[in-house]
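User: Can you predict the 3D structure for this chain?
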Amino acid sequence: MKRLAIVILNWNGEAMLRQYLPSVLQYSRDEATIYVADNGSTDNSLDLLRHHFPDCHIIELGQNWGFAEGYNRALAQIDAEYYLLLNSDIEATHHWLTPLLEFMDTHPNVAACQPKLLSMADHDRFEYAGACGGFLDRYGYPFCRGRLFETVENDNGQYDEASPTLWATGAALLVRARIYKEVGGLDARFFAHNEEIDLCWRMRIKGYEVWCLPDSHVYHLGGGTLPKGNPMKTFLNFRNNLTMLYKCLPQRDLRRVMLVRWLLDYVAAWQMLLLQHNLGDFLAVYRARRAFRRWRKDFDKDRQEIQQWRKAGQTDERSPLFLLCQYYAKGRKTFLTLTL
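Assistant: Here is the predicted structure, written as structure tokens:
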């Protein structure tokens, strides 16, 4: 069994691999075996890997399975103690793996962790997709140390203390392989977006911990697959977030939270149309709500199993904050200003 397998999922990412894979190899090859799992690319990704990166192991998946199922299929072929799911647009740094591995080795109840995620465009700024560790508010809105909605903070060392979180970013997610399999891996039905939050939430419900370890940091380009403002991204985010809530919310909160989200989602949709003049995202929210209603029953067994993992008196994994109120009504735009 290998100790650590770094797995980069690729789909038509030749340019990303050419630019960022060298840093991963330079700073990781002594501690990890590096794989690129290819989701049926039609560009020259595979030729590039074979001729220029012979140290990488290639897993050919044959078609585009999406983020979740692509990783599930790739990881099923790898025997390792730890998996590190790494985006192809990550630039690694010197000794970035050491703090992550040392922490996991000495904290057996920790299922997953992430490094500090900084912006490729501005190395002094957090990156949107995970910043310094993620949380959910009471209604399922994700936020991070270093990022609330569209406000991304500069990194001034304010979050340099290691901290437990609810979720770790899928851009650079180190996870204990045994626990990944124990909770069922990524939910392939999500295809992409919210799948790492769903995975981490299930691990937390099981009683495991998730951490952010800022002693390790990497740089992330972000937005490489579906850029911001893409209606398909909006659709997947809304549909998958609702599905995750349905699976993981405690029974006492399910009806209330889903009712509030029904209202808030339609308010968001009309804001997109009337204030942002964005018809594509407006329609995407309506399609997402409809898609969730149609497939919700497909997740009844998942919900029943997940709720059985909960122990009596278990602390709620979500933050009690109402993030929309904090951000828009009270004007609190940074993590450290949030209050109950």
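The radius of gyration is 19 Å. The mean pLDDT is 96.
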